Every structure is written in C-alpha cells, then in structure tokens.
Amino acid sequence: MTAIVINIGNTNIRFGFFQNDDCDISWVLNTKPYRTSDEFQIQFMMMYQTHNIDPASIDRIIMGSVVPQLTYDVARAIEKIHKKKPVIVGRDTPSDVLPKSKQMGTDIYANLVAAHHLYSGKKIVFDFGTALTASCIDENGETIGVIIAPGIITSLNSLIQDTAQLPEIELIKPKTVLGLDTVSCMQSGMVYGFLGMVEGFIDRINREVQDNCFVIATGGVSHVYQPLTEKIHVADRLHTLKGLYFLGKSF
Hints:
Blueprint: E1 2-8, E2 12-19, E3 22-30, H1 37-50, E4 60-65, H2 68-82, E5 87-88, H3 106-118, E6 123-128, E7 131-137, E8 143-150, H4 152-161, H5 182-209, E9 214-218, H6 222-225, E10 234-235, H7 239-248
Helix pairs in contact: 1-2, 3-7
C-alpha cells in the first residue's frame, strides 16, 4: 500500500510518503499563516511535483490534526488533489493502545501507537514540538501517563520577544556550559536547561513505574538533544507520522 500521511501541528504540517510501512520521503510546511484550501492545494501539488509523487498512485491519505480550524481546509485540498477523502484519525480511532483519557491529543496518541508497534517493554516518548510532551506506555499497550511542558522553541521565542536586548539564536550545543557572550549563554540555557528537565523527567518516571523505560525522542529539535544524553535511546523525527500511519492503514 502507498499512503500519504499528514500530521497537522500547531507549528508545522509534516507529510510522509509511505510504501509498505516504510516512510521513504517526508517534508514540512509551516502552519502559519493560515491558508485557504485553494492555497493549500497549490502548495501541496508543488511539493508532490518536487518529490516526483503522482497523486493518482496513492492508495490512501491518512491525516491527524491538533488544529481543528485547519483540518477542514487541508482535507478539502487533499480531496481536490486525490479525488478521494482522507482518513482522519484521532484518539477515538481503535488500536491496541488504551488512551485512558478523553483529553489526549491526536499527536500524543499517535506517538504511543508507534511506540507500541515498534518497541518492546515500557516506553517513554518525548515530543519536542510546540509543547514538550512525555508520554509513557507499558508493554501491554496501556497508557501510564503524560507530561506537558512548555516547548523549547516556544520558550525561546517568548524569551526573545519579552526582552529588549536578547537576540534570535540558532539552537545548537554551545562549546561550553558557561558562556561569555549573549548567544552562547542563551544556547546553554536552552540546550542544557531543557536537557536537564528531560533527564529529570526520565529518572522520575522510571522510579514511578519501577522500570527502566526505553526512551524515544521525536519532534523538530529532538536531534539537538538526543546526542547529548545516554538516557534517550532513539531519535526519530518521523515517529508521530508512523503512529498516524498505523492508526489509518486498516481503514
């Protein structure tokens, strides 16, 4: 089966082209500013052409969203391109995972579904998105719990906007923990500050569940943090897309 999987987030819309359970191609579009369905249609078709994807060859379009006001317009654009409606999945979509909450976001649910399909034992998924979330699932597919904290980029943007003399910076590992210029000082705070929080969450969750969980990192800046700690075992930017794919492939 060939499928296009679309994850509509607060900051980005991520696309994945799947062939037989493998995501061969992916790309990201900015969620803001909001666009009409016609604008989305043009933009999506341009990306298909860039990646040599023929819309007629796609068997299924699977879509998950945490931005309700965008869901309808994106779905309309997809229907115009593919001449078929997308399969829209969410926390009410049946799976082997028990969400245990009517408030669970589609992205968190998809993260748990992917973790359950791909890894054994107890798992923690950190999603470094607009919000930083940590979701934990046991070996039987039962949700243990979730943590939601301010996202790294969200926090950085707030810091820059609410101060008069702090510049925009690139989120990379600084050469030293203690900086001597504004940029390296900010980089240290954003990188090592959030890394300390993530490592602290892992330690506390492991103590609470009385196990050493397998830890997966996903989301836009996960690649910055995974190399800096042995507590994160895998970094996979496509993890949420894989969860949406598993949710929608059986429809």
